[in-house]
Amino acid sequence: MSGMRMSMGLQARQIQTQKLAPRMIQSMEILQLPLLALQERIEQEMNENPLLEFQEGDTIGETELEAPSNDTRSEDEKELVVDDNSDNSEDFERLQNMIAELPSTFDDSFRRSAGGMQDDADRRHDLMANAQSRPESLNDFLLHQLAEMDIDDRIEKLAERIISVLDARDGGYLRTPLADLLPSNHTEADLVLAEEALAVVQSLEPVGIAARNLSECLLKQLAPDFPHFEEMQTLITSHLEDLAANRLPQIAKKTNYSIELIQTVRDELQGLNPKPGAAFMETHVPNVTPDIVLEQDEDGEYKVRLDDDRVPTLFISEYYRQRLQDPNCSTEEREFIKQKINGAQWLIDSIEQRRSTLTKVAEAIVEHQRKFFDEGPEAIEPLKMQQIADKVGVHVTTVSRAVDDKWMQTPRGILPLRKFFVGGTQTEDGDDVAWATIRIKLQELIDKEDKADPYSDEKLVDELKKAGMTVARRTVTKYRKRMGIQSSRQRKDWSLTQK
């Protein structure tokens, strides 16, 4: 099993599907990287792969790169995917056919000039200096989601206990038996309740969290609309060990699946995340660098762009392309060049796919949360990652990785993309309203109440209903406590009653 990898299912790249699928699976590693980590990854890859070159004047971080002086880049350089199982003539014929379909360099039309970057430098520095510098922990992220659920208090407390023993360093697995989280004199009914609480935690994001073993973790990530849903279930449930040891013939014998089908399903399984909690391992980020910038044009429309000016435009060396065509090129050198070309093309494809996916996800988020940007935090709309996944046309785990540790510079400050995914309820008219909006309204009601006769929780329910928000009393009580607001008796100002 290879961690942190997932197939993107690209419709635009249906040709050469079998050749490109492994690279698309690996591209999830690139997708999950925030901007600074991406720059470090590119620098590392360029140090290790002599076939990677860059456009003159590009930079990585604050360092300007100097392109080779003999650069005679031609249009043919924009694609070079070498098939290890065919000769060079077919490779380059295939190259010509793929140029239009698979652009491997960045589209410079999205880039900003160096002058424009310099103009924004001070403004961005000031904004980032005021931004939150410590990402949300796994436990806090789960507790935040749990707080937005209207569930039985006993189940909620058990769910909180389960969350407390999850460790991001272990991938977010539940290693503690449920019975050990209960009192020593617990009953069978208590265990049933604990199972219900675990089901609640496992329904949270990231998908696959709080699993008790690898099989359960992967099964939780499956969806019935997967191309090979039943086969994936079978391999996860009964043949993971054989898969890990590459004992495909034994699997074929036991399942009557063809080797080709097993290989296909294995590739799809590699798209699942065996350690869903690992994305929260980082404990400190010195500075927040936004990957995305949101700006308003003259017509008031919001425009999303990636702030990746310091990511160099990569292409494959002209020199090594010519060496591969040279009849005097030795077999050993030819194999070396093929291997490095495949590695270079994978990186180029992965960076471009990261740009495309991140841009589409950000645009979908902005479109859904337009009221938030227009009116402020109280207008945030309920949003689940599955909604964005459906809109963009990717799996929900792709969205989860796309927003991991990514920040967006907006007219309302630099904000983590995860901030825009919130739970909610519905008004009597059937309109969605976010829990965050309810909390803001709740605070507003308490701020304006008569302190001589403050609102009881029942009265707060009535006042919220007048504002079009139907909320249960116990939910009001739960949020009041989480907001640090005392009960009506404790809020009462007795000095006002004596006047």
TrEMBL record:
Annotated region Disordered: the residues are 53-88
Basic and acidic residues biased stretches: 72-81
Q: Which InterPro entries match?
A: RNA_pol_sigma_54, RNA_pol_sigma_54_core-bd, RNA_pol_sigma_54_DNA-bd, RpoN_core-bd_sf
Q: Which keywords are on file for this protein?
A: DNA-binding, DNA-directed RNA polymerase, Nucleotidyltransferase, Sigma factor, Transcription, Transcription regulation, Transferase
Residue stretches making up the RNA polymerase sigma factor 54 core-binding domain? 129-320
| Compositionally biased tracts (Acidic residues) | 55-65
Keyword Endoplasmic reticulum recorded:
no
Example GO CC term: the record gives:
DNA-directed RNA polymerase complex
Stated family: Belongs to the sigma-54 factor family.
Per its record, how is this protein called by name?
A: RNA polymerase sigma-54 factor
User: Mind giving the lineage of the organism this protein is from?
Assistant: Bacteria, Pseudomonadati, Planctomycetota, Planctomycetia, Pirellulales
Tell me the name of the encoding gene: rpoN
